[in-house]
Amino acid sequence: MPAVTVDDVLVLPRVAGPDVSTSVERTVSAVTAAPQGYEGEGFPVRRAFAGVNHRDLDPFIHMDQMGEVEYAPGEPKGTAWHPHRGFETVTYMLDGQIEHQDSTGGGGLIAGGDTQWMTAGSGLLHIEAPPEAVVMSGGLFHGVQLWVNLPARMKMTDPRYQDIGGGEVKLLTTEDGGAVLRLIAGEVGGHTGPGVTHTPITMVHATVSPGAQVRLPWRPDFNALVYVLAGSGTVGAEHRPVSTGNLAVFGAGDALTVRAGTTQESRSPQLDVLVLGGQPIREPIAAYGPFVMNTRDELITAVEDFQAGRLGTIPATPKDGGAPGGGH
């Protein structure tokens, strides 16, 4: 970790820190620890949002840190075919590869540093699995999947896909060059990431050198979350300690701060965090497994549509008769 970086951070555009005299620093309202479990056919995950009130997460619903795990030959695992409706999935691969196929004919390979945005909308079926060559060889697997809610007016929008190659991510640094910032979606300090989202969000993967600090301007109408992928440090004006698997929930303000500890473990020589924020939707949520709607009746309809085959059938026929393209 990470897959996308530079040899000399000083050549990167710099994000100016917020004005200390006028900005309002966000304090930390809670720090939680992600429980570990298994997903799909048995790959390990950390449930990043477990135990956090939805009002603090809105517009985000769910996030898994997949791995980090070193597979032996024959061990890599994926998921079976399953449906989605009513939200967007964002899959960000730090290391390793995973293939996707869906009932619209979409699909593709998500490799180290790539991000794939899937708007499930009105619904589809899909499957995720490591490529055959990866199953044979084994190797490192590490990624994140984030679920972003859709407002009621867009729950039944047509499915949409966006592939963001690792080379397309906006690379930035801080004023002192102490961190690499990968802006995947949204805007920070006048810089814009490549991700185009139905629900306004910002998503940043920051790698912070030992002892360095990241102080970012943050939209006051967005919520703010920091999830620790690896390493240790502190967050917020009050220097709350955090380490791998911790999620920090911030209160109101227009600036947030993350600091890396001066000493890191050899396995994680730097602090790696995801910084997330979005515009709350503030609508009722009715969720059942892979369906996220607004009412119980809409959930019942989603289940009935799935059982009746109205979310698609498998296997899919690739679009235009060629190689599948797009989707998670």
Automatic annotation (TrEMBL):
Q: Do you know which CDD domains this protein is assigned to?
A: cupin_pirin_C (cd02247), cupin_pirin_N (cd02909)
Q: What residues does Fe cation bind to? A: 82, 84, 126, 128
Domain Pirin N-terminal, residue spans: 43-148
A Gene Ontology molecular function term for this protein is: metal ion binding
Matches recorded under Pfam families? Pirin, Pirin_C
Write out the entry's keywords from A to Z.
Iron, Metal-binding
Instruction: Specify the Pirin C-terminal domain's residue ranges.
Output: 203-311
Top-level taxon in the UniProt lineage:
Bacteria
Q: Which SUPFAM superfamilies match?
A: RmlC-like cupins (SSF51182)
Swiss-Prot/TrEMBL cofactor(s): Fe cation
Q: How is the cofactor bound?
A: Binds 1 Fe cation per subunit.
What family classification does the UniProt entry report for this protein? Belongs to the pirin family.
Q: What is this protein called?
A: Pirin
The organism encoding this protein is: Haloechinothrix alba
